[in-house]
Write a structure and sequence with these properties.
- The protein is of the alpha+beta class and 220 residues long.
- It folds into two domains: 43-167; 172-214, Single Sheet (N-terminal domain of TfIIb).
- The protein is built from five helices and seven strands.
- A hairpin with a 6-residue loop joins β2 and β3 (106-113).
- α2 (43-55) packs across α5 (151-159).
- The protein is elongated.
- Keywords: Metal-binding, Zinc, Zinc-finger.
């Protein structure tokens, strides 16, 4: 019994020394870091560009915003409950936050559905997202990847929450690189005289699209 007690004491002393000297010294070490690259990639970047075009000068778009930077727990006096509520939003984020251009006050939250399978973690985040937006009285709009190429439709969705935004002719973005597309007219060949969309980054990007292509316009 005495031997067990001595071993326990030695272990406690050992962990105390490790925590006080080794870990403390390690906290002051200058570790090397490197950039992770663009904040948004692929579909997220294309959708961000579509949102910016949709709101124009009437709003500012922020991406991957920590929930705790936008909302805070309300009327919670119990310290333990306040900690839990604060920790829940501190570990999650909003895909896109549309803000007033003058005050930067959040006006609309936009959630992008990337088409990936619904996992347990994704389902829990969506449940939290709907709850916090409803309780904080923040409009929540769900959008899919196809909205990246339907700026006119995005304008109609946002116009209900942001003053001055008006729907106009559709603006499309390249499905290959996410850049704005421009309208051109074929001047030769079988389709001479017909209009079509082409990527504004030509010749670096050669993606083109039929001018009369019809997108699905059913409500999400």
């Amino acid at each position: 019994m005495t031997n067990i007690f001595i071993i326990v004491v030695l272990l406690v002393v050992f962990f105390f020394i490790i925590q006080k000297y080794v870990i403390k010294h390690d906290d002051t070490r200058d570790y090397p870091y490197q950039s992770k690259g663009p904040l948004l990639r692929g579909q997220e970047s294309a959708f961000y560009n579509a949102l910016r075009s949709a709101v124009g000068e009437h709003a500012v778009v922020f991406a991957k915003v920590n929930m705790a930077s936008v909302i805070t727990p309300k009327s919670i006096k119990n310290k333990k409950q306040l900690f839990v509520a604060s920790n829940r939003i501190a570990r999650s984020y909003f895909d896109y936050v549309i803000c007033d251009p003058r005050t930067l006050e959040p006006r609309v939250i936009v959630e992008l559905d990337n088409g990936q399978p619904l996992t347990k973690g994704k389902a829990e985040r969506q449940k939290l997202l709907m709850h916090v937006c409803k309780s904080a009285n923040l409009p929540l709009i769900g959008a899919s990847v196809k909205h990246s190429y339907q700026v006119g439709r995005l304008r109609r969705l946002l116009a209900a929450h942001i003053d001055l935004i008006e729907s106009d002719k559709e603006i499309r973005f390249c499905k290959k690189c996410g850049s704005p597309m421009v309208i051109k007219t074929a001047n030769q060949g079988e389709f001479k005289g017909r209009r079509f969309f082409t990527c504004s980054r030509q010749p670096n990007c050669t993606y083109t699209e039929n001018y009369n292509v019809v997108f699905d316009t059913e409500d999400e």
